[in-house]
Every structure is written in structure tokens, then in C-alpha cells.
Amino acid sequence: xxxxxxxxxxxxxxxxxxxxxxxxxxxxxxxxxxxxxxxxxxxxxxxxxxxxxxxxxxxxxxxxxxxxxxxxxxxxxxxxxxxxxxxxxxxxxxxxxxxxxxxxxxxxxxxxxxxxxxxxxxxxxxxxxxxxxxxxxxxxxxxxxxxxxxxxxxxxxxxxxxxxxxxxxxxxxxxxxxxxxxxxxxxxxxxxxxxxxxxxxxxxxxxxxxxxxxx
Amino acid sequence: xxxxxxxxxxxxxxxxxxxxxxxxxxxxxxxxxxxxxxxxxxxxxxxxxxxxxxxxxxxxxxxxxxxxxxxxxxxxxxxxxxxxxxxxxxxxxxxxxxxxxxxxxxxxxxxxxxxxxxxxxxxxxxxxxxxxxxxxxxxxxxxxxxxxxxxxxxxxxxxxxxxxxxxxxxxxxxxxxxxxxxxxxxxxxxxxxxxxxxxxxxxxxxxxxxxxxxxxxxxxxxxxxxxxxxxxxxxxxxxxxxxxxxxxxxxxxxxxxxxxxxxxxxxxxxxxxxxxxxxxxxxxxxxxxxxxxxxxxxxxxxxxxxxxxxxxxxxxxxxxxxxxxxxxxxxxxxxxxxxxxxxxxxxxxxxxxxxxxxxxxxxxxxxxxxxxxxxxxxxxxxxxxxxxxxxxxxxxxxxxxxxxxxxxxxxxxxxxxxxxxxxxxxxxxxxxxxxxxxxxxxxxxxxxxxxxxxxxxxxxxxxxxxxxxxxx
Lengths: 215, 472
Fold this sequence. Notes:
The complex is a heterodimer of chains A (215) and B (472).
Chain A: E1 6-14, H1 21-24, H2 44-47, E2 79-82, H3 94-102, E3 106-109, H4 114-121, E4 126-129, H5 132-144, E5 149-153, E6 158-160, E7 166-168, H6 173-181, H7 185-190, H8 193-206
Chain B: H1 6-12, E1 15-18, E2 24-27, E3 30-33, H2 39-48, E4 58-60, H3 70-74, H4 83-99, H5 114-121, E5 129-132, E6 146-149, H6 152-161, E7 163-166, E8 170-177, H7 186-197, E9 205-210, H8 212-215, H9 219-227, E10 236-238, H10 243-249, H11 258-268, E11 281-286, E12 293-295, E13 303-305, H12 319-332, E14 347-350, H13 358-368, E15 379-382, H14 387-395, H15 398-404, E16 408-409, E17 430-433, E18 448-451, H16 454-463
């Protein structure tokens, strides 16, 4: 997994609450058996005026000029500023894959849906929770300043604005550690293989009906 | 000292190791697999040279992409017309064969929507931890299990280690007291709960559903409620084990038998919250107050009772909320203030992991029996949740009731709930749907979903607009 230490980048707005993962990446693209290539279809229904199909060349499609990601000022954005409950709904990891593939490394919102939040960390994306009034302030500054950039530092757990305001954020220690180092958490879990085997022995003793039934 | 909640007990009994950094290693008893969220996980295993930790913990079934038209379906995987869907279902078959995982293939009578199949086969049982790369895995919590959806990286993690790294959630009790009015179903109850706490209300919580209404509810009703916990923001919903649970589980193909059953039953009887257990939040609804519900917007929290009228953005102070209502009204092509009963569906969909079990089909059939769907309706689809449900429904003659009413009787699968197969809405079409999500584009590009119970969907199909099924 890609590590995340710090990121300074252009910020793009996703100014609506309850953005669901169907909106982030519509279902027809979930038929892919690959992990990459979802970026051109990120927010497909909002970004284009036609209905997207898997495998098509998106450069020839009619784009929605009102959608921020299509506007010149937000090109190359690596930080997404969003509203509450971002990433709700389906557990599809294709959502963070699409965000990452498009170039987003960090999402800032007042709250995230639980499964999406977890999926971000597995893909080198840092989801940051900031107070609603702070997010409001950031939206105001973003709209007022073309080329608005933020600096995000995971080691310090801080977001810094262009005029020097600093906002601290919380992130739990294990996820922070894995993201800073870009660790493969399967490898980490397998270091506990003996503990897992010991648990299994006990479980087989207590609840034998859980074993050897489906085969 | 306060006691433990059901969630606390399930968590505690699956704790492999508590780490110093606050995370915990939790053991997973059952891993359900479908074709959409697993190919990249199997590929990850291959690339890392890893093997599944424990084969008998896994069960796979294709459901999202499978065609529901009999002709296309009868030819098996090779006959799936959409080549991208075909490859995905074929890939599941290939991966299960390569890794030696049990799969109910496309035309196996046990095939169906993964969340219908699990409980039906006894593959998911009380006291288990159950995960699947699908957010509606919360369904299995109805059995008194700790069940939740995961992403594909975690699918790979479970395959490789039989564990997940988790943080403990907070506890929420949603208690429904009293009794339900006739015609009000589990779907109405859970939609009313979502209307009450909002689509993010359960974020960070594990929800336990309790109270007299839930105690008197069938297992299938409880599954409908737990299924939609995720629409209230909670990854997991659950119900304590009681006689209803045990009667449901007994005799299922993968359930324990004989002396093993006696032992299991004894253990499962403990699966309820202690009398003085602490909940971080308690939400109480009165069963008598709940009316049939219909969603009007693009989030499940945008829901009203059947006698309600659509909100007017002009009366909403909060700017983000007002913008959301304006956007939803625009997307749905509806006017502020109009009554719910004035909404006219173009299509009706009865199915999905929320409402495709035998009781759902019985409830819908009871409403349409001897009647015809409205002339204005383009299509009414009835899609059973599994091959077993289909068989049972046909044995009861329900298929004929639907067909005589002018509805289509299909093969089992996820179908129009998320439109990954050929069953989808056209742009601008309204659908009375028994599924779980009314997000923009969910049932087809530009499609407009109204979430309702099976009885309400059936009544709308006949009347041509939403009606109060209590007056039926």
C-alpha cells in the first residue's frame, strides 16, 4: 500500500451532504475484475451528461460544465472537501479506488460513513474529520480563492490553510501507523498466527458446530 | 455493575487479541462471497502467494450480475449476454474452483441473494461473526450474530487470516414498543427508524433492535430491519436470540443437529443484552404510531408516512439541508407540498435482500390476488431471493397470482435493486421498490426510486399510484 505522510495540494469541493458510494462510482463500473482504471468514472453521473459504460473512452463524452471537477480551477486537485456522512451506502471499495485513481489522497469532511472511512485507509487515502464550522470556513475560503491549497500532515495530525490557520485532527493510532509506513496489514495480522490458532482451538472446543460444516 | 449488551458479548467472544493501540483482532466465523467484491481479493492472494486460512469458513454465491429472465438464465454462465457481467460471474466460479471454496453456482437451487441464502441454509447462525463484501451483511444480525459489510481489502484480509482488525463500536438500542397496525410491515418500521435518526444517525454504533414489536416479529421481518441498519448509518444491526430465532434455525441444512443442537441452543439462549446493560444511545418508537412509509427523495431518510406531503425547501433553515431537499425534488421531478399518494410509479420492483423472502412474496400476493396491475404501469417485476424461495412460492401458487395480475415472475438474484444486470429503470422513471436504497441512479441512470414495503409496492402496482395499504 502507498504510504501517506504529508500532502500539499489543490482542494476541490463536493458540496453536498450524504454523498453515497453509488454516486462516487456507479454500479455498472463494479463489473470490472480489476483494481485500477476507475478514475475516469469517478462521480460519473455528475461529471458527464450521458450514461457511462464500462471500458469506454471518456475523453469523447459530453461533460457537465457545472461540476467542479470539470472546471479548470480544480484541475489536479489532490484534496477533496466534503460534507457530512461522506461515503454512505454500499461497501464497494471501488469508491476509494476511483478517488485514488483520479488523484485524491485526502478527503476532509465533518463525518464519514464507517465502511468507507475504513476502506480509505486500505488504499493510502487519508480521511480527515474536522468540525462542521471548520469545514464551513474551509468551503468559504476555497470558493473565494482560486488555486486554494491545503497542507495536510499526518505525522503532526494537522491541516494548515494558506493564511496559516492550523486545525488538528484525530486518527486512531493503528491506522495512522499503517498509513505512515504504507504497511500491508495482512502481513501484520499473520504475525499473530499463533494467537489465531489458539483462538480457533478454543472456539472448536466451545462451539464445534462452527467448524467443518461447509465443504 | 452494569451488564453487557448483545454486541459486547459477541465482540468479547470473538476477541483474539486486544492491541495496545486500541485496535483489536476479531475472529470471523463465516465469510460470504459474491462475484462483485471478491475478484480483486483473490487476485491479491495470488500476488502475495497466500492461501485461504480456513476453507470451511467460506461460502460463495453469484447474485448481483445474474440474469433473471428465464431464457437467458437457463443457459448458465456462458449464456449471460453482457460480456462484462459474464466475465465477473465466470471469475467467481474460477476462483472458487482454484481456491477450493464451496460455491452455489448460478443455476443451483440453493443459489440466490447472498443475504437470503446465508440464513436459509443455516450457513449463518446465532453467535457467529459474519462478514461479506457487501454492506447489507447486517441482515444476518437478525439471528443474534455480529454481521457487517467490508471492503475488498478486508475480503482479502479475512480470506488470508480469518480475522479482521477492528475498533469497537458504541451501543445503540432501538426499541419499538407496543403493536403494529395491520398492514404495517417490518419495512415500514425500519424506514420510520431511519426517518427518526437520519441516514448518519447510527454512524459509529452497533444497533440492537428490541421492544415488543421486534419480539413479536418473524425472523424474516427482523432480517428486513437489520438489513437496513446500514441505511441508518450503522454497519451492524442485531436482534437477541429467542424462541422465534431457534425455531427458524432448527433443521436448516448447515445448522447443528441432535446432541450438537442441544449444546448450541444452550449457548445461543445467552445471546441477549443483560437487564442492566448500558447503551450509549436509546431510541424509542411506538408501534401504534407507525404508518406505511414511502421515500420521496434520494436518501432513505427522505421518507414520509403514506398520508404525508412533500417538504417545502422554503421552510428549511439549514442551508445544506435546504439544498439537499431542493436537489432531491429536482432529481425526482416532484413538487414541494404534493401528497405522497399523487406519485405514480412507472415500474414496480418486488425483490432484493431486504424484501424477497417468502413472507414478503405472500404479503405482496395477498394484495394483488384476483386484480390486475394498472394500465399506466410499464412493468412489475417479482424477483424471489433464492431458488428455494422461488420453489416455495411456486408450491403455494404465488407465481400464478403474480402472473395473472400482469406481473413478471423471475429467476432469483439482486436484479433491479442495483441494476447490475439487465433489470433497470429508464431515465426519469419512477419505481415503487421494495429494495433498500433510493440514491440517484441506483436503479438505473436517471431512475427515481421510492422505497416501500412489499404490500405497499403491490398496492401501488394495482392502483397506479401510492395508496394506503391499511385501506386495502
